[in-house]
Amino acid sequence: MASGELDPSSGVPLYRQIKDILRTEVAEGVADPQKPMTEAQLLDRFGVSRAPIRQALKELASEGYVYRKQGRGTFPVTGARVHRPADVRPGALYQYLSESGLHPASKVSGIERVEPPAHIRHRLGITAHERLLHFTRLISAEDEPLVEASVYIRAPEGFSPTAGELEGTGSAFELLEREFGITLDRAEHEAWATAATAEHAATFGVLEGSPLLVIETTFYTTGGLPAGWRSAVHRAEDFKYRFVTSR
């Protein structure tokens, strides 16, 4: 099957095949950001009914790869390669990247039990001498560094994952749930722009002083107890964080 063509015999739903083709074209910059993806054009291109076309465009829009202009059609989103929607569950970025076809890789270092800095103790509401599991994780997508995170987790002393286990799952909270039944319910985020330090410039392959995106997250269990804290630094031009507010 040629690239960009559907395979009705593959067993993969047609809307999913169409979505994957269009997503790849948007992510790789092949799709023209000035040219709308109209239903008529896509019907002619793929030779299917309207239902799979509409479902593919709906999911691409929800994931941030395309956006709709009233009366004009659906357009590709340029810039960021990673569009994180609001409904990605806490601690599941690695899984989301994998499901999005971005072939993530994870490198974990510096695993240790430590007393966290004062501002983290205050955020989590813990005593001065409580020791948390701490490590640093570097996530790459398509072989390029995307996120470097410093993670602190409140966990039983018996929770002592290896670097290989943390890299294999992409989430310490997944291991924590599997071993101790501790699950996450929600997460609170704070985000801002910062300038790359010399260390960050070396990590991400950017110039010192380049813009980076910082997202600090506090995780809570299903019982409402603070479960951990993470500070994640992102390559700003490659990452878009989508969120929803309601009243």
Automatic annotation (TrEMBL):
GO molecular function: DNA binding; DNA-binding transcription factor activity
Entry keyword Transcription regulation: yes
GO biological process terms held by the UniProt record: negative regulation of DNA-templated transcription
Keyword annotations from UniProtKB, A to Z: DNA-binding, Transcription, Transcription regulation
Location of the HTH gntR-type domain: 12-79
SMART domains xrefs: HTH_GNTR, UTRA
Stored Gene3D superfamilies: Chorismate lyase-like (3.40.1410.10), Winged helix-like DNA-binding domain superfamily/Winged helix DNA-binding domain (1.10.10.10)
Name of this protein: GntR family transcriptional regulator
Protein's organism: Kocuria dechangensis
